[in-house]
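[step 3/7] inverse_fold.run input=structure_tokens len=88
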């Protein structure tokens, strides 16, 4: 099983087995969790999916429920930021 912030591996596995979607709790920005500080990597994950020519849908939480953002900007701002800069 991939680690808590290894969406890239999860998408690669989903692609390899022909899955239609992947659901995970991967933050977009840095968050503090029981596992320490986790850095979001949505841009790398989406670039990998593109390189694999994968159609796997990714469903990920904007506000990760078991973590807190380093700077609380509010859920609406985080959602807009993810939509606008997720592929940075």
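[step 3/7] decode complete -> sequence:
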């Amino acid at each position: 099983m991939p680690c808590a912030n290894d969406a890239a591996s999860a998408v690669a596995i989903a692609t390899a087995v022909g899955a239609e979607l992947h659901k995970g709790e991967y933050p977009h920005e840095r968050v503090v969790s029981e596992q320490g500080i986790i850095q979001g990597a949505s841009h790398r994950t989406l670039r990998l999916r593109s390189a694999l020519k994968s159609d796997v849908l990714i469903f990920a939480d904007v506000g990760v429920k078991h973590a807190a953002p380093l700077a609380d900007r509010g859920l609406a701002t985080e959602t807009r930021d993810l939509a606008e800069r997720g592929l940075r």
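[step 4/7] annotate
DSSP finds three helices and five strands in the chain.
The longest strand covers residues 21-24.
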